[in-house]
Amino acid sequence: MTRGTTNPNRLRRMDRWIAAVHGAELRRAEDPVAIDLGYGAAPWTAVELLGRLRTAAPRTRVVGIEIEPERVAAARPYEREGLAFRHGGFEIPVPGRPLLIRAANVLRQYDEAQVAAVWERLCARLAPAAGVSRGGLLVEGTCDEIGRRHVWVALGPEGPRTVTFATRLGSLDQPSDLAERLPKALIHRNVPGEPVHAFLRDFDRAWAAAAPYASYGARQRWLRAVRDLRADWPVTDSPSRWRQGEVTVAWTALAPRS
User: Fold this and answer.
1) Chain mean position to CA 53
2) Organism's domain of life (predicted)?
């Protein structure tokens, strides 16, 4: 069981990213189901996820899953059309295969050695790729208490795809401030010799070089830093996402070396 901290709007950055990059998959699906895994002591994150996903895919249904029965009972009064709560864990106790599983601030209490097995188990529950569809999406990551800084890994049925760094730009001194929010698979790898350490080092250098753009605001400085970063790192998203205080990098570039 997690600590259960669920401040309203805590996961807004992750939710908006999901709606932007996965909305088309949800719209195409006959019965788009999204899972809020480990929603915590209050149902706010599941309620908010439904609202944000329905802006992109109006037929989306959300199921909140918690391992603590008392939390499920407390959430039941908030059920409505498109929103339900179930007792369970990594087995994802819903029929069929969901198109989205969001697991925010869940794996931080596990050992790093356990992460791969959990990812594999959750990915096996995702809707498979078929035709033009890439299949379901697992989004697993960590954020601070009020959602200013957030890092998550996106995985498909085939495994990890990308890592996204997202922040409220006005609160950022330098990009490596996000290191404390790295997901469990990476947080202990922020040491010399590991790719994620090199990435954050290079991001800080690009941020420093972009200091003249600070006079135009933190967003312009971030945009310039990410553009420079692209010369050496496989950034997979576009300026429309960078403007949100995000940058997404291919998982293969940041994956642990051992």
Assistant:
1) 14
2) Bacteria
Cα 72 to the chain's mean position, in Å?
A: 23
CA 246-163-214 angle, 5° bins? 25
* Domain architecture of the chain: domains with CATH: 12-167 (3.40.50.150), 169-233 (no CATH)
Please report, in tens digits, the pLDDT of each residue of the chain (258 residues total): 666 567 789 999 999 999 999 999 999 999 999 999 999 999 999 999 999 999 999 999 999 999 999 999 999 999 999 999 999 999 999 999 999 999 999 998 899 999 999 999 999 999 999 887 899 999 999 999 999 999 999 999 999 999 999 999 999 999 999 999 999 999 999 999 999 999 999 999 999 999 999 999 999 999 999 999 999 999 999 999 999 999 999 999 999 997
DSSP string across 75-131 = HGGG-BTTEEEEE--TT--SSS--SEEEEESSGGGS-HHHHHHHHHHHHTTSPPPBT
Helix, strand, coil % (nearest 5) of the chain? 45, 20, 35
Helix (H) or strand (E) holding 50: helix 44-56
Nearest-angstrom CA–CA distance, 107 and 111: 8
What is the spatial distance between Cα 46 and Cα 64, in angstroms, rounded to a whole number?
6
Q: Which of 102, 103, 67 is nearest to 86 (CA)?
A: 67
The packing angle between helices 12-28 and 44-56, to 10°, is 50
8: left (phi over 0), alpha (psi -120 to 50) or beta: beta
Structure tokens at 227: 């553009």
- Which are the contacts of 254, defined by CB distance < 8 A and separation ≥ 6? 163, 186, 195, 196, 199
